[in-house]
Specification:
heterodimer, A: mainly alpha, Arc Repressor Mutant, subunit A, two-stranded antiparallel ribbon, B: 188 residues, mainly alpha, 9 helices, flat
Chain lengths: 205, 188
Amino acid sequence: MSVTNGVQMGAGDEERHLVAAARGGDHRAFEALVLKYQDRIYRLIQRLVSGSDVVDDLAQEVFIRAYRSIGDFKGDSALYTWLYKIALNLCRNHYRTRGRKPPHEELDEADGATGVEAVGGTPEDEVFRREFWDHLRLGLDELPAEQREAVVFCDLEGMSYEEMAGVIGVPIGTVRSRIFRGRRALQGRLAPFHAASAGTQGRST
Amino acid sequence: MSDARCEEFRELVSAFVDERLDGGELLRLEEHVQACAGCRIFEGELRRFRGLLQAAETFQPLRRPPPGFAALVMERIDREPRAQVIPFPEAHARRRISRSPWIGMVAAAAAAALFFAWSWQRVLPVGSPEQKIVMPRVLPMVDVAAADGGSMDTWMREHAMLARGGTLLGSAEESEFARIRAGAVPER
């Protein structure tokens, strides 16, 4: 909640105000929107694309394209879903131009990334988490693009089927089917972790 | 229970664990799962797997944007000459022009003219008196069709008749063409 000209503004109003100002060419308003959404966009791109070297460029490009076409944003959807659409298109283009380079060639780069979120637990827990994430990354990369997008949006981003249908541009039935097929394929890839997790749960209960 | 039948229900199970199933599909699934141990096991596995994916949220090595990320974006926007926001009314007007069906129609007419010019060259002997009469008329007709709001379908039908019949290739072609446009000459 903020106060502008003595009038209290909700988050939605404030965003509409910023969008309107950005459409009028106000750079500071657009920068405020970048600051608001940079974390989400950065996170989404890391989930959709392997290889830490391209995340910076792609994330910057999302906002630059958004700035250029903010006149097209009509406000009939949430701003973040509009930004997600731009990010998704850029990630798809990245996959097309990069080709299907074996993703494990890029994992080491990600492993050496700075700013990795530290999580507590025993060293064994840490090894399990790291290996699980590596295999999840590999599994996602091996999925057909439409299944990867569906699993990332649903299971990692926590989006609703309706939001996904809007961002991806397909009917809800297609979203449902892609989620199912993506999960099935990933289940196979992550089966050892799945079994270990079930065993841990069994022991702890 | 057959595997093929279970495969059909497992997509429903996936939607069910997302709480996205209701009505007839939910009833069908409940009925099936009561009788199918394999699908009950699948539901349990899928729930655990989904929990594992969601847990990855807490320990995946995701990075945050580097400090100064937004400033860097704005610097690039300032630097790039193309990165100019077009004020809304002007952007709207530009879009209206660029999406105008008029431009598409003229482009299609030009393409059709080139096609008919090519096909006439095949029908009429090169350098023949007939070709000399017809060819100069092709491109102006595109403009006429566009200017009088005539549809491309009509224009192409007329020209197909011209190309087929050859009866217009004489001194009476103007009046004949007028009769075709007026619908006095049926299409063959």
